[in-house]
Every structure is written in C-alpha cells, then in structure tokens.
Specification:
heterotrimer, A mainly alpha, B alpha/beta, C mainly alpha, A: mainly alpha, MetI-like fold, 14 helices, globular, C: mainly alpha, two-stranded antiparallel sheet, 2 strands
C-alpha cells in the first residue's frame, strides 16, 4: 500500500465505511425478498439460509389471493392523490400568507398550527373518531368507514406549511416590491413569480405527502371497518394478523405492498432527494 | 370586529368544550339507522374462521336478510373499535364479547338483554338443548346479557411420530401433571450433540390461560364467590404456578415463544406438544408432515378447565334492528348451523344435539382425539364476569405469569403482589 | 384602524386587511376542525371522569394525582426517556457521519444516497414485519450472524434485561434493577426506528453542508487548519441551524414513538415485562381498552405534550445562545 497516494487511501476508507452503511440498509430488504420465497422447509432452518433452497413462488399468488390487495391499492392511491392535491393548495396559500403578508395574530396562529405537531396521533384519535362519526354527510356511520374520513382531515398539513413558509422566506424582500411596482396583485404574484421559483419545494411537499399517506397506519386502522375502504398498510397488517405466523406469505405480502412506492422512488429518487436538498431547510 | 389572538384562543376553548359536551355525550343524536340498512355484526374472526363465518352469513342473507359481517382481525382491535363506536354513539348491532367486557357495556346501558327475545314472539327451540354451562356464563344479575357463539376448550396437540421415537405410547397424551412433566423431559432431545436441546417437549407463549386452567385443576378459583376479590394467589394458585414454572422453565424441556410462533415450531417438527384452543386445529390443518394427536389437557387434582371463546351481545338500537339481529343469533345457534360452524372451525357446538349431526360426526371420526377433547366441556367452569377482571387478568398475566416465566420472580411473591393490584382494579368504580 | 401594523405592499386596497385570512382559511378550517378541536377536547377531558365517551363529572386534578402515583406511568415515562436518549444521539450522529463522508463529489454519491433513503419510503408496517423476523430468536438473521462469529445467541425483542446488565454480566457484575438500563428489546426498537429515519436526516445534513460557502473552508485552509480544525471551526458552527432542526424534529418524533412499538413488540404490546411500554402506547391502551378511561389517557397526553413543549423551547434557548457566540 506504500505506493498508493494518501488521498486514495483516505477515500478507500471512506468507501469502506459507506459500503458498510449501504449493506446495513439493503440487507433487511434482501431478507424480506429472500424470506418471501421460502417454504416451510427453508423457513424453519436454524441457522436460516441466506437464500431459499426450495424457492416457493406460490407465496406471492397465495398472499395476493387471500385478501383483496387490488382494492387496497386503489383505495390508497385514490386517497393519496386527493390529499396531495389538497395539501399543495392549502399549504401553498397559507404559507404565502405567513411569509409575505402582514396581519394580526400571524405569529400566534402560526405557533398554534405548529403546536399541533407536538401532539401524537393516539392522543386525539378517539376524539377524532367521535367527531367524524357525528359529522353530517358521509355514509351510514357518518364519516367513519368513508373516504371522507381518510381524506378531508388530511387536506392541510402543518409540516408542509412550515416547509413552504421557510422556502418563501428565503426569497429576497425586493422581489415583492419589484412585483408591486410592476402592478402585480397577490394572485398574479403567486402564479407568475412564486410558482416558477418553488418547483422543488412544491415537489417535495407532494412527494412527502404522498409517501406519508401511503404509509399511514393508525388513522386508517381506526377509521375504517371494511375491505372496500381499507388502504394497503391496514390491509397488510390485517393480512399479517390473519396469517399469524406464516413468514413466507407475510413477507410476500410485504414485498408487494412496498413495491409500487419503491418503483416510483427509483424513477423519481433524484427528484425527491434533490428537491429535499434544495428546499433549503433552516432551523 | 378585530380578530385578536386572545379572542381566537377563547373561541377555540369554547368550541372545544361544546364539542366535548356535545358530541362526546354520544346520546344518539344520529339516527341509529333505519331498518333498511344492513345489520352490523362486528367480530374478530380472521383467516379460516372468518371465511367459515362469512359463508354462514351469506346463507342467512340468502333467506332475505341483510347482515354485514365485519372482521376486526383480533379481539383487542374488536374491543377498541366497539369502545370507540359506543363512545361516538354508533355501536354495531351485534358484536362478539368476552364476559368481562359485557359488564362494562351493561353498565354503560348499551345492551339489550336476551330474555326479551327468548320469551318473545320468536323464541329458540328447546332451550334445554343448549349446554347449561354457556348460559351460566352468559347470565349476569339474573338476566342473559350475552349469547353463546364461539365457545372453545383448550386441548393438547402432539406429534405422534415423536412420541413413538421417544418410546411413549402415542395413543393418548399425558394424563396427569406428573406425566406432563415426564413426557416433556423425555421428548426433549439434543440431535446434534452440542449439549443444547434442539427439539423440545413442549412450547408455549406467555399466557394467563394456561395458568388459569392449572389453577382450577388444582382446586383453586380466579375470583372469590361473589367476584369482589381475586383468589388466584391461594395456596392452590401458588402450587399451580410453581408447576407451570417447572414445566415451562426449570425443567429445560420447553420453549417459550413470542406470540403464536410456538405453533410454527410444532408444525416444523421442532416441538412435540403444544397446548392450544380447539380452534387451533383450523390454523394448523394441512400444514404438518407428521401424525397429529389431539388430547384433553392433562388432569390435576381435579379434571376441570375454564370455557374459552366469546359470546355475542346485542346493542340497543331500534326494535326492528334488534329483532333482525336476534333472528341471526337464533338461526346461527340452531343445531344444523352450530354443527357446521363447529365442524369447520373447531369451536364447540352450543347445542348438545349438534354432536349427533352428520357433519359433526364426520369431523369427530376424522380426528378421534377431538371427541375426548370436547368432552372436557362437561367438567368446565365459566369465565369470571366482574367488570374489573378485564384489567385484573392483564395484571395477572403481566405482573405474575410473565415475571415468573422469565425467571424474575418467585411464584408466591408474584401472585401476592399481582393479587393486591388486581383487587384494586376489581374495586375500581 | 390606525393601530394596525404596516401591511405588505401586496395588501393594498380595501380588502388588504382581510386578504391574509382568506388565504389562511382553507388550511385553517381543516386544522382547526380536525386537529385543534379534537386535540383540545381530548386534553379538556383530562379534568373529567370519562369512559365510553361519556362525561361523568368534573374531577379537577384527580386524574393527574392518580397518574403520578401509578408506577406503570413512571415505567412508561422512563422507557420513553431511554428511547429518546438512545434514538436521538444515535440518529443524529450516524446521519451526520454519513453526510460528512458523502460530501464533495465522492464517487457513487447518488447511489449511496439512494440506498440510505430507501427505508424512509418504506412503511413501518412492512419494516416492522421484516425486522421482527431478523430478530427472531430461533430462525432469525441476527442470531445466525452472532453464532457464526462465535457469540451466544440473544433474545432480542424477547429480552427484558437491561443492556448495561447484559454487557457487564460477563465481567461478573450484577447491577441493581434500577441501573440495568433500557432492555435489549427496547434497544431493538431504537435500532429499527433509527435505521428507518437516517436517510432523511442524511439528506437534510447534506443540504446544510451544501449551504456552507466554500470560501470559509479556503480561509481556514490558508490559516493552516487540518481536517479536524475545519470541522470544529467551520462545519460544526455553520451547520448549527441544520443540526438544531434535525435534533428538534428527531426529539419530537422520538417522544411520540408509537408505530414500531405497536407493530413489533409483544404480545402483549409493550412487552417483555413492560420494558418497551412507552408513554404513547400506555395512553393508547388506557384510552382504548376496557371501556376506555379517556380522562386518564388525556391526562397522560397533556403531561407528554407539556414535556415536549418545554424541551423544544429549552433546546431553542440553548441553541440560540450557542449560535450567538459561535
């Protein structure tokens, strides 16, 4: 190693550490896939085998056919798309107000919004259930077991408002003055100046809202009762409960429950990470 | 009007209080549903049990009814959903219910007693045909508040091949506590000679059920006569828990697993015996490659055990809906249906006549051990009904059974400490 | 109207004062109705005796008195603190470490970043299911690896013994119960939670690092600073806002940990021996089980909220001071 330059030696060590990290992140996914192909002979080996010696592809068809996964997927996507559309509009408008406009109670309102982030979901889930049940409209049980329970309460998202406000605050102050001199009203200002400058931030909000909705669990667990409305995560948890201990089937179900999102991620990962990086999060 | 932060805050608080006192009251502002809406039946029957139940519900609906069967997956989720729904003022029409939950719901005035229907326009045929013990368990304060639905007993599943290998007669399981320990020890083998056991005599999860049965087999009871205090810390209880610790821990012949994993170990041929519910059969059927034996639980001083499984309760809605819900319960517990339900799932039939039904006879022929296992019902006792027992049983499981099986506490001290705490739960208003 | 604050030039015209509220309205309706209202009513219930959603009378601070006298509450509080103390530094340090390694056009940066971020887009339901198998005592990967390296298999999620005790026992020490530390089971949950969240923090740190102007480093280099010196005098102080953000967010989320506990531990959830019963699960169980003691659950919630709020404000105070003197 003597002849190797110190710079290379340093990078070599860095790569080794990064690689070790990468392995730690990939192995559980590998284990998920490998287990999903194992039948009883492979599952109950101690120590377990790294790969299925008797691959059992039927795990996938069996898991797929036991519960209505296509319906779960449809529900999830429908709910997520509605929420993303809503969150972009509501967060964009209010972040605009918080960042560019002056009004009484601005700090107070913003802080009271922010404070809701400090309250964990289980705290308000029962009172939310009571509220949703007693709201007018919806199905037989009010909003319970209805798409409205999954969508409407999530149409505004405090963290997204926070994120967009931080982004808007990074705009130079003269931007507003220049726009006003040009005779720009607030609506034109939003569409002609803010929107083009906020693509990355808005993408981040969209993607994160989508991912969070896709992965949300406790809320839909409590608010839904039937397969026709259940999203994928609740469906997966139910499947795991019903299969109880069939590791192969459970992992097969887990694999296709995460697959769509991972595919989207692989195609959009540059966009996701870059937009997150460029949003310019500041304390 | 200026909208100050102070005003905003006051408005919020007022709105909140109104919300709390208004919605949370759940005084049935919402119409509980016209008779046109389907009757909601919430249960915890997943997997093969859910499929069987849905089949029966479809058949009931084919006769012109409209009942919707909704699975909540497991009992804890079911009880949580029922709680939330009752709190919101919109309970289901029917739900599965353990005895100790029933007391809560009675107190909350959410239920309709079954007496109204049993003596009403559409009574059941031949009440004497029901196993008496179920009705005893369903009765609280002189009224029948729940109706037997999916009752079970615990029994022993064993691997006959492994019995033969160990030189034990595979025709029957262990019959006494002593035999239980002895078999477990003899069935524990170190196959690769590394000094550690690879195959175990017995496997179990940490559960109060096993202790409860050992306790009654040893002549003890969970609660005193009028259910005002626990009695599981009696000398019989301490002895039962000592035995359980010997069997599962000290002898080194048992495996304690997380949740239902012990069933996997049994199916994979790594364990010779497991205790399970009579319903476990539905989950292990067709998944093992050995000769399966089914036997009653080994006997203690007395041959007894607690009835397991749940009843259904009927929620107060409108007279029409309650009547339709009752029609389902009545239909479901008729000889033909209860026999089919039992044959498909392993739950016990609720009527004696069902044991002679052809589907039931066929099932018992296929699993000869089952007849003896089911016969345990004749010597079984009902579950406690006290409202505080739901929490009390949690205390027993988490603060006595678990610490003892994990080697943290001695049976006597653990039971006494748990008893003090469980008594507080029983006394709670 | 003279006492109103100066408005932005965008707010000219007679609607100028009302306009901001109109922009806020859509989000405010949702947040007030579906967040603030349920949260405040949940918290208000803590002063009542309430079960099955029925208010059965004002009890003042009784719920709080009961709460502080309940050893189960204190157990869950201690477990939560251990979770936070374990998860926050581990997550922040690891992600900062990887972010520093990934800085400045190292080859394969994109690929590493993609991989590290993978768990972030994976649901806790799926993540918990696979980690439960990895930690499986008999057929799990974790024990297989340990045994391959000649170690003794561990009980992982089934191990109630504190990790300090586990580490010192081979040396012949036997710690008293209070000094045993968090159970190995709780540490498993910490590991999984940190594993899932690192990718996000790495990206945030990378963004923060990118914002440090290059000329600071050049100036430091001219002053003869080495790698460590540059980290101490340039990177660390200039990264403070980012670090603060990451620490605050991770702390808040860690205090609220629920999903991995609910999905990975037990049965009963919170086991073994209640060593993974964290405060949010404790209040969930109290509020939902056996008739739902909602008043009591709400009291727990309010205490937790107060703790998070105080800590966040405290962190802000401390960090603001530091930023000043940096």
């Amino acid at each position: 190693m003597r002849s190797v330059s110190p710079a290379f030696r340093r990078n070599w060590a860095i790569h080794l550490m990064l690689l070790a990290g990468a392995v730690a992140f990939v192995v559980p996914f590998y284990w998920m896939i490998s287990t999903s192909l194992k039948g009883p002979e492979d599952l109950f080996q101690a120590p377990p085998t790294w790969y299925p010696e008797h691959p059992r592809v039927e795990n996938f068809s069996e898991a797929w056919n036991t519960v209505p996964f296509p319906r779960y997927f449809f529900n999830t996507i429908f709910v997520a798309v509605c929420i993303v559309a809503g969150v972009v509009v509501t967060s964009g408008l209010s972040a605009f107000a918080f960042a560019f406009l002056q009004f009484r109670g601005r700090e107070g309102i913003f802080n009271s919004f922010l404070s809701t982030m400090m309250v964990p979901e289980p705290v308000y889930i029962i009172s939310s259930y009571i509220l949703l049940y007693n709201l007018p409209g919806g199905g037989r049980d009010g909003w319970i077991n209805d798409y409205s329970a999954l969508i409407v309460p999530w149409l505004a998202h405090v963290f997204s408002i926070f994120l967009l406000r931080q982004h808007f605050l990074s705009f130079p102050r003269d931007l507003v003055d220049a726009a006003v001199i040009d005779g720009c009203g607030p609506v034109r200002f939003i569409f002609q100046i803010i929107l083009p400058l906020s693509k990355a931030a808005l993408t981040t909000v969209c993607l994160f809202t989508f991912i969070n909705t896709w992965n949300s669990f406790l809320w839909p667990l409590v608010m839904t009762n039937s397969d026709s409305i259940r999203p994928i995560q609740v469906g997966l948890a139910f499947f795991a409960q019903e299969q109880g201990t069939e590791h192969g089937l459970m992992m097969a179900a887990a694999v296709f429950s995460i697959a769509p999102l991972l595919v989207v991620y692989f195609f959009a990962q540059r966009q996701i990470i870059e937009s997150l990086t460029h949003t310019g999060l500041k304390g | 009007m200026r909208f100050t932060a102070g005003r905003f805050r006051r408005l919020l608080i007022t709105g909140t209080m109104l919300g709390v006192l208004g919605c949370a009251g759940g005084d049935g502002e919402r119409d509980p549903g016209s008779s046109a809406d389907p009757i909601k039946f919430w249960h915890a029957m997943g997997g093969p049990l859910g499929r069987s139940l849905d089949g029966l519900v479809d058949e009931f609906n084919a006769a012109g009814h409209d009942l919707e069967s909704v699975s909540m997956g497991k009992y804890q989720a079911l009880s949580q959903k029922v709680m939330a729904a009752v709190a919101a003022g919109g309970p289901p029409d029917l739900a599965q219910c353990y005895e100790a939950w029933t007391a809560n719901l009675i107190e909350n005035q959410s239920l309709v007693p079954f007496g109204r229907f049993l003596e009403g326009a559409s009574p059941v045929r031949d009440m004497d045909d029901f196993y008496e013990i179920y009705l005893r368990g369903a009765e609280q304060g002189g009224e029948i508040w729940s109706f037997p639905f999916n009752k079970s007993v615990r029994c022993l599943y064993y691997n006959k091949d492994m019995f033969r290998e160990a030189g034990i007669d595979p025709a029957h399981g262990p019959r006494t506590w002593e035999e239980y320990r002895d078999y477990a020890r003899r069935l524990t083998v170190d196959t690769d000679g590394d000094g550690k056991a690879d195959r175990f005599g017995l496997a179990s999860q940490i559960t109060a059920s096993m202790f409860e049965n050992l306790l009654v087999q040893n002549g003890g009871t969970l609660l005193n006569e009028d259910e005002s205090a626990v009695s599981f810390d009696s000398p019989e209880g301490v002895e039962a828990l000592e035995f359980m610790a010997d069997l599962l821990v000290r002898d080194g012949s048992a495996l304690i697993s997380q949740g239902f994993e012990y069933q996997n170990e049994f199916l994979a041929g790594k364990v010779a015996m497991i205790e399970g519910s009579s319903v476990s059969l539905a989950f292990i059927e067709g998944k093992y490659g050995f000769e399966l034996g089914i036997a009653p639980l080994p006997m203690g001083k007395i041959d007894a055990q607690l009835v397991a499984g749940t009843d259904v309760v009927l929620f107060a809605t409108t007279p029409e809906r309650e009547a339709t819900a009752w029609e389902f319960v009545k239909w479901f517990t008729e000889t033909e249906q209860t026999a089919r339900w039992s044959a498909e799932t392993g739950y016990l039939p609720v009527r004696k006549s069902a044991m002679e039904d052809p589907v039931m006879v066929a099932k018992l022929e296929r699993y000869p051990g089952l007849r003896e296992a089911y016969a345990q019902l004749e010597r079984a006792v009902p579950q406690p009904q006290a409202k505080g027992w739901f929490a009390g049983r949690n205390v027993l499981e988490r603060e006595a059974i678990e610490p003892v099986l994990r080697g943290r506490m001695e049976p006597a001290e653990a039971l006494h400490a748990a008893a003090r705490k469980a008594n507080a739960e029983l006394l709670a208003p | 109207m003279a006492d109103l604050e100066p408005t932005s030039p965008l707010q000219r015209g007679k609607w100028g004062h009302v306009m901001p509220y109109l922009f806020l309205l859509p989000a405010a309706i949702i947040i007030v109705t579906f967040r603030l209202l349920p949260i405040l009513s949940a918290l208000a219930v803590s002063f009542f005796d309430a079960s099955f959603g029925k208010i059965r009378g004002f009890v003042g601070l009784d719920q709080y008195a009961k709460l502080f006298a309940d050893p189960e509450f204190w157990n869950s509080a201690v477990n939560t603190v251990w979770f936070v103390v374990g998860a926050v530094p581990l997550s922040v340090a690891t992600s900062l470490f990887f972010a520093l390694l990934l800085r400045k056009g190292i080859r394969g940066l994109g690929l590493y970043r993609t991989i590290y971020f993978l768990p972030v887009v994976t649901s806790f339901v799926a993540v918990s299911m696979v980690w439960k198998l990895i930690f499986h005592v008999r057929f799990g990967l974790a024990n297989a690896l340990i045994e391959k390296m000649g170690g003794n298999p561990l009980e992982w999620l089934e191990e109630p013994t504190g990790i300090f005790e586990l580490m010192l026992r081979p040396l012949g020490w036997d710690l008293p119960t209070w000094a045993e530390g968090p159970s190995l089971a709780l540490i498993c949950v910490v590991i999984v939670s940190v594993w899932r969240g690192i990718g996000y923090n790495v990206v945030i740190f990378l963004a923060g690092l990118q914002n440090i102007p290059e000329h600071y480093y050049e100036a430091a280099r001219i002053d003869g600073a080495g790698r460590a010196g540059m980290f101490r005098h340039v990177t660390w102080p200039l990264l403070t806002p980012t670090t603060f953000y990451v620490v605050v967010m991770t702390t808040i989320l860690s205090f609220q940990v629920f999903a991995p506990i609910y999905l990975m531990t037990g049965p009963p959830v919170g086991g073994p021996l209640g060593t993974t019963n964290v405060i949010v699960y404790y209040l969930f169980e109290k509020g939902f089980d056996a008739g739902g003691n909602m008043g009591y659950a709400s009291a727990v919630a309010l205490v937790l909220f107060a703790v998070i709020l105080v800590l966040t404000l405290f962190q802000r105070k401390v960090v603001e001071k530091r930023v000043h003197y940096a």
